[in-house]
TrEMBL record:
The keyword Transcription applies. Keywords: Transcription, Transcription regulation. It holds the Pfam family TetR_C_1. GO terms for biological process: negative regulation of DNA-templated transcription. Residues 71-197 form the Tetracycline repressor TetR C-terminal domain. It comes from the Bacteria. The lineage of its organism: Bacteria, Bacillati, Actinomycetota, Actinomycetes, Micrococcales. The keyword DNA repair does not apply. This is TetR/AcrR family transcriptional regulator.
Length: 202
């Protein structure tokens, strides 16, 4: 009997199947994942080191699909926005997956390249060496938080009184995806404005 032209299982296939399972509302468990792939548990363990290995495989898949796209020409602010946009799109498309990735150290080359690029842009803009990593962590945490906000219900606030100021504000405020996108854009503008203020301080 001829051997299949491609392996029946790979880290990429495991990562993609796990992403699909979690995006669909399932839990990250090895046995259901093996069943979904139609393989044995030992086959999974041949390619990944347990549950944490599956998480690394998911990150490898996502780092390729959401590869960094930096404008050819632009200010440091334009480049920074493009990079954070890459993170936000990834987090927004797979918020439940991101919750799992938070607990595992980043070691995938594709993902590390994004953070290295962020460091380069911020350093070239003049952010002090001692502030670079903290600034990146702030940007990353913001992108993740904005993505999780997308899981919020259409109506977030339900004031008891129709006369409250919150009620009147809600009437003229966007909802759903439009609200989430506005939150992200305005929030990123605030952070970049804060970075710029810091650069101009003596």
């Amino acid at each position: 009997m001829a051997r299949p032209s491609s392996p029946l299982l790979s880290r990429e296939k495991i990562g993609r199947a796990a992403i699909g399972m979690i995006d669909g509302g399932g839990e990250l468990k090895i046995q259901p994942l093996a069943k979904k792939l139609g393989v044995s548990l030992s086959s999974i363990y041949h390619h990944v080191d347990g549950r944490e290995g599956v998480i690394h495989a998911m990150r490898e898949v996502l780092s390729v699909e959401y590869a960094l796209n930096i404008p050819d020409q632009g200010s440091w602010k334009d480049n920074l926005k493009a990079m954070v946009d890459s993170l936000w799109r990834l987090y927004s498309d797979h918020p439940r997956v991101m919750i799992h990735l938070l607990g595992v150290t980043v070691e995938e080359p594709g993902t590390l390249t994004l953070y290295e690029s962020l460091i380069d842009v911020l350093a070239d803009a003049g952010v002090p060496e001692t502030e670079l990593l903290t600034t990146i962590e702030v940007l990353d945490a913001f992108a993740f938080g904005a993505a999780l906000d997308a899981l919020s219900p259409q109506v977030i606030f339900a004031p008891a009184s129709e006369d409250s100021r919150l009620t009147s504000l809600i009437e003229n405020h966007p909802a759903g995806t439009e609200r989430n996108h506005r939150l992200y854009r305005r929030g990123l503008d605030f952070i970049i404005a804060g970075i710029e203020v810091g650069l101009n301080q003596p």
